[in-house]
């Protein structure tokens, strides 16, 4: 409520005082993707650092393409937005972003000292021609794709391959995320596992260079398993696992972390695994659109979000891993109940045997099998059309039974979700 009142007040200020735009910061972010107390804290911090007042107008979106359309076609004057990797790629190529100047005077540069070099290197993998993407984007949250599963009903060894989707033991028990790009990216790695092992193709090539042949391969596989899948879901799969109405869900790591915590409250055990054939690693990042009106406050906002304490608050609230790679960040998540693993790729030297939740930070060995997704440009139509055909062919009797069960369970699911003040944002990457 406090944040809502702040946003409404800022909106009134913006509407009635357009000449005062230099004191308004318009932030456009995913739903449930920031610890709300940091909004007011930034306003106070900014005045301390610069001697200038600023008020945040905070708005949210649920789909990357919604945000992109408002900027690309509507020329909306948002000052800071938080797109996903492949959209950052597109925005740079289409000249929709301003460079992020990191000269903050006497204010510490938390971007430079805080963001893990691993994610900076991942940013550089974006296909932006001669343009360095690290000049236009700062990583915010990141994660992986895998299976959330219930070990009471599901064997972890079975879920070490994406082909578990074809295992009749789990017929009607696995939900699949309604996210065409993510599903294509993991299925094609399974289907091309022998070529990857032989070195005739790389994961990066498979995810970055679309071909009709590969799209057809994935479509044929998905059509083959259509009667196996419990349903393609936008955001209810993890809830169904908590309620033990499903045994597994092809999902994102942050949702896995959230679901495990919620399930524990109900006496249900859930876990998360990334199959051996490889997966995707994704990132969302802060950028400044070319139509921004308050570039200075935007730069300071991005810097503020990279400070370790603020990073911890945001990571705890959202459920996903933050880009901050400081030793203080690592120390905050040490968990002696976890097995030691090599996280030197993210936190640097001396971190090759640390005990941290592997959902939050996968080991170096697992990350080596994960590739970044890319924008397909005009070829995206192939992906969209394929996905429509797959989902259109999946309206089996089982699907309708599942839908009916969901309706019945809706009240319980809503009640369960409302108890959680730190529910992770379910990423929409369609």
Distinctive features:
D-Maltodextrin-Binding Protein, domain 2, 3 domains, 430 residues, eight-stranded mixed sheet
Write the layout of secondary structure elements.
Blueprint: H1 2-16, E1 24-30, H2 37-50, E2 55-61, H3 64-72, E3 80-81, H4 85-93, E4 97-98, H5 110-114, H6 117-123, E5 138-149, E6 174-177, H7 180-191, H8 193-198, H9 203-208, H10 212-224, E7 229-233, H11 237-242, E8 248-252, H12 253-265, E9 271-273, E10 279-286, E11 288-289, H13 295-305, H14 308-318, E12 321-322, H15 327-332, E13 340-341, H16 344-347, E14 354-355, H17 364-367, E15 370-371, H18 380-392, H19 397-418
Parallel strand pairs: 1-2, 1-3, 6-7, 6-8, 10-15
Antiparallel strand pairs: 4-11, 5-8, 5-9, 5-10, 5-12, 13-14
Helix pairs in contact: 7-10, 10-18
Question: Short summary of the structure?
Answer:
With 430 residues, the protein is an alpha/beta fold.
């Amino acid at each position: 409520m406090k944040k809502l009142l702040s946003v409404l007040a800022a909106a009134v200020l913006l509407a009635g005082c357009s000449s005062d735009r230099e004191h308004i910061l318009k932030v456009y972010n995913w739903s449930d993707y920031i610890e709300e107390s940091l909004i007011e804290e930034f306003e106070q911090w900014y005045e301390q650092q610069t001697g200038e007042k600023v008020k945040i107008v905070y708005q949210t979106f649920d789909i990357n393409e919604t945000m992109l359309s408002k900027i690309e076609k509507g020329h909306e004057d948002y000052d800071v937005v938080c797109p996903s990797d492949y959209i950052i790629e597109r925005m740079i190529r289409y000249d929709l972003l301003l460079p992020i100047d990191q000269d903050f005077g006497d204010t510490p540069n938390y971007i430079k000292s805080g963001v893990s070099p691993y994610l900076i290197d991942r940013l550089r993998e974006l296909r932006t021609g001669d343009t360095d993407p690290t000049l236009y984007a700062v990583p915010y949250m990141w994660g992986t794709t895998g299976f959330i599963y219930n070990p009471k009903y599901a064997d972890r060894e079975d879920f070490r391959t994406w082909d578990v989707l074809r295992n009749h033991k789990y017929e009607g028990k696995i939900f699949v995320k309604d996210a065409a790009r993510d599903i294509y990216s993991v299925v094609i790695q399974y289907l091309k596992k022998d070529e990857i092992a032989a070195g005739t193709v790389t994961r990066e090539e498979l995810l970055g260079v679309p071909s009709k042949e590969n799209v057809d391969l994935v479509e044929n596989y998905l059509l083959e398993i259509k009667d196996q899948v419990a349903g393609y879901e936008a955001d209810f799969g993890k809830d169904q696992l908590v309620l033990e109405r499903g045994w597994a869900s092809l999902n994102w790591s942050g949702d896995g972390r959230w679901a495990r915590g919620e399930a524990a409250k109900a006496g249900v055990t859930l876990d998360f695994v990334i199959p051996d054939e490889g997966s995707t690693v994704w990132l969302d990042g802060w950028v400044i659109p070319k139509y921004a009106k308050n570039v200075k406050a935007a730069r300071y906002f991005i810097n503020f979000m990279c400070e370790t304490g603020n990073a911890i608050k945001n990571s705890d609230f959202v459920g996903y891993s933050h880009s901050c790679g400081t030793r203080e960040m690592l120390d905050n998540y040490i968990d002696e109940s976890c097995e030691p693993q090599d996280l030197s790729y993210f936190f640097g030297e001396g971190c090759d045997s640390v005990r941290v939740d592997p959902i939050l930070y996968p080991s170096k060995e697992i990350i080596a099998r994960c590739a970044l997704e890319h924008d397909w440009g005009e070829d995206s139509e192939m992906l969209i059309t394929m996905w429509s055909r797959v989902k259109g062919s999946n309206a089996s009797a089982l699907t309708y039974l599942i839908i009916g069960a969901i309706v019945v369970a809706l009240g319980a699911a809503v009640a369960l979700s409302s108890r959680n003040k730190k529910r992770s944002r379910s990423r929409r990457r369609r």
